Amino acid sequence: MGATEGVSFPTDSTTATARTIVADALRKADPVGARGAEHETAWRRGYLLHLRRAVEAGVGDAAAAHTIAADGLRSAHRQMRFADLALPEAIETARRQQVLSTTTVRGTAEPETELSLPYRGERLRGSALTRQLEDWVGRGVVTRSCADAVERVQQNPEWLRLEGDVVTVLGAGAEMGPFQALSRWGATIAALDLPRDDVQTRVREIASAGAGVTHLPSRIVTDAQADDGADLVAELPAVADWLDHLEGRLVLGNYCYADGAKHVLVSMAADALAQHLTRHRPDTALSFLATPTDVFAVPGDEVAMAEEAYGRGRLARATRSLVRAVSGGRLLQRNYPPGADPGICDALVPQQGPNYALAKRLQRWRATTARHEGSLVSLNVAPATRTRSVVKNKALAAAYAGAHRFGVEVFDPATSNTLMAALLVHDLRAGRPPADEPWQDEAHGAAHGGLWTAAYHPRSALGLAAVLGVGSLLT
Predict the structure, then answer these.
(1) Given 94, 119, 144, which residue is the final one in a domain?
(2) Which of these ranges, 283-292, 349-358, 375-384, 461-470, has the smallest mean pLDDT?
(3) Are 206 and 183 a contacting pair, CB within 8 Å?
(4) Confidence band for 95, pLDDT divided at 50, 70 and 90
(5) Of 73, 147, 301, 453, which shows the fewest CB atoms inside 10 Å?
(6) Confidence band, pLDDT 50/70/90 cuts, at residue 45
(7) pTM of the model
(8) Based on the domain organization, do 398 and 387 belong to the same domain?
(9) For residue 225, with 0-12 CB atoms within 10 Å meaning exposed, 13-18 middle and 19 or more buried, which class applies?
């Protein structure tokens, strides 16, 4: 990308940049792994191994985990540019060259005063919501800590308004973002998304129909009309300046998505914002959604459920043996070695590609680093969800359609984004001290959808799930 387009890679090779970032992240904690990443000649396939090593090298060694996160981010910031400047320098020196004003939209509804969750055509609240949470825990769809957090929000509905906070939703139009739920609950929101008519129309409709106060970045075009929205990648300094002038404690939430390499660029722009705000406004909180299709260290309770599923049923064992024999052992591999605690759930999906994986890993590294430096951080694993970006990929859509046959529940966007918004509210209001190791923080409150408790290694079942799911897509 050219320098005039805002945040950009240092060269035309996004692969070279990603390879360097991962190698630099591993260099101190796992020198052998770092050399392996540096010398990888087939990054599109090989990244799966190197991103796994970047998790494994930090398990059991908190200092190593913090080093991996900090060094990976440092490498990314050293390489990525805004025009001819490093990202932090661009925010400080170019911010006055781009100026954004504020348009405020006040919702017309009354704030909701009870937590409710849309699920399969119903809206669950009270005891019905509690029963559903317990069902998910029992089936290994969410962790116990996730259900407990939602229960606590249900018991403290006054938390829903997030009084005194300004929740900055980067990617306000995203299907997985909390904008709509927070607006219904009466929160104050800074909603940022692209300055496109279709996107901004949707943002305004959500803000007007809700009960909260929504601030939009805007440029005055005429005395009577404002051009709302901002391109975070192209207008990073202006967005930083705009947020600096909002009153209240900021919560910076990164819910942006883009295809291909653009996802890395927007994640880096958001990360530069996070770094700037936590330094200049130390009370700033950060929020992220982790994708379940990544590598995580998984607590022993989830491993035990996977082991139980693996050993269940004589017919299942016979079928598994036949499938493994026919596939040369590639299919239906055991998810964890017996007794692993923690286990490593490697659910990276090649169809999503290395850029998606790197963009999401950068977010996890920022969460780890910011939490270690004393910032309040909300990072929760979200369930696999039928978003537009997923179902437009035919292979993923088919795999999601067949996932239930392997114990994985795929959520509708309305269920996922409300559930994750409730977890955000919990984290901002209840809080908790950092765990002994970063992997434990990432595992807390996870709504992994069943990937962590499935009997089989996700990639070894993905192809079969897709084959089984094709029929349901055609009906």
Answers:
(1) 94
(2) 461-470
(3) yes
(4) low
(5) 301
(6) very high
(7) 0.94
(8) yes
(9) exposed
Identify the domain containing residue 244 by its residue range: 97-299+340-474
Does residue 46 sit in the same domain as residue 182?
no
Assess contact for 316 and 282: CB atoms under 8 A.
no
Averaged pLDDT for residues 267-291: 97
CB 448 within 8 Å of CB 143: yes
* 118 and 47 assigned to the same domain: no
Place of tokens 């060694």: 61
Residue 294 in contact with residue 270, Cβ under 8 Å?
A: no
Residues 197, 245, 161, 366, CA torsion sign: positive
**Same structural domain, 79 and 168:** no
Residue 162, sorted as left (phi over 0), alpha (psi -120 to 50) or beta, turns out to be left
Cα angle for residues 400, 347, 25 (degrees, 5° grid):
140
| pLDDT tens digits along 179-237 | 999 999 999 999 999 999 999 999 999 999 999 999 999 986 655 555 899 999 999 99
CA triple 356-362-367, angle to 5 deg: 130
Residue 339 CB-density burial (10 A; 0-12 exposed, 13-18 middle, 19+ buried): exposed
How many independent structural domains does the chain possess? Answer: 2
Confidence of residue 3 (pLDDT cuts 50, 70, 90): very low
pLDDT score for 247:
93
